[in-house]
Amino acid sequence: MIRPEHQDFLLNRLGALRAKHSGRSLYDHLRGTHTLLKLWGNSDTICNAGLFHSIYGTNKFRRKCWPLDDRGTIAGLIGILSEELVYRFCTSDRPRVFVPEDPSKDNAIWRSLREIEMANLIEQNSRSRWLPIMAAVGVSKGARESLEQTLCTT
After folding, report:
1. Distance spanning both ends of the chain, measured CA to CA
2. How far apart are CA 145 and CA 102, in angstroms?
3. At 21, phi and psi to the nearest 5?
4. Which residues are CB-contacts of 94 (< 8 A; sequence separation ≥ 6)?
5. Based on C-alpha coordinates, what's the Rg of the chain?
6. Helix crossing, 44-51 with 71-78: angle to 10°?
7. pLDDT, tens digit (0-9, with 9 covering 90-100), for 71-129
8. Mean of the pLDDT values across residues 132-150?
């Protein structure tokens, strides 16, 4: 369940129902990403980051719904760790960067970002070549199962 203050912020301050994303509203996409992360058993930190994952814009979603110079507002709303994940998601060369070239450099932050990216792409019914690569590097069982279902449907 999305916290009321998060929903209020996304709908009323961010205007996420008016912003378009993947053929529908940004809010629908953010909510769907959050729902998948919850279903997969992720922490509130990761789920909250997933709910806000593209508000600063990304290398694929160019619309900047919230200014990067006001990260403090988002950190105050969803928490410092969640906001850090949002910031990294929005400013990274994703999804490539979420797959470490050196497996010894993989850590909880990269695993969290990979999980958010998996939810982001699966929620959009993406057939990205990066999905199986990220799954092989390491994501939750729920993410792997969702990927299998996504790839089995046409």
Report:
1. 29
2. 25
3. -155, 125
4. 58, 59, 60, 113, 117
5. 14
6. 140
7. 999 999 999 999 999 999 999 999 888 888 888 888 899 999 999 999 999 999 998 99
8. 93
Q: What is the pTM of this model?
A: 0.94
Q: How would you write 28-68 as a 3-class SS string?
A: HHHHHHHHHHHHCCCCHHHHHHHHCCCCCCCCCCCCCCCCH
Calculate the alpha carbon distances from 101 to 54, 64, 74 in Å.
24, 29, 31
Instruction: Render the burial of 76-99: b for 16+ CB within 10 Å, e for the rest.
Output: ebbeebbbbbbbbbbebebbebbb
Domains of the chain: 4-152 (1.10.3210.10)
CB–CB of 33/123 below 8 Å?
yes
Concatenating the DSSP letter of every residue in the chain gives: ---HHHHHIIIIIS-TTTSEETTEEHHHHHHHHHHHHHHTT--HHHHHHHHTTTTT--SS----SS-GGGHHHHHHHH-HHHHHHHHHHHHS-TTGGGS-SSGGG--HHHHHHHHHHHHHHHHTT---THHHHHHHH---HHHHHHHHHHHH--
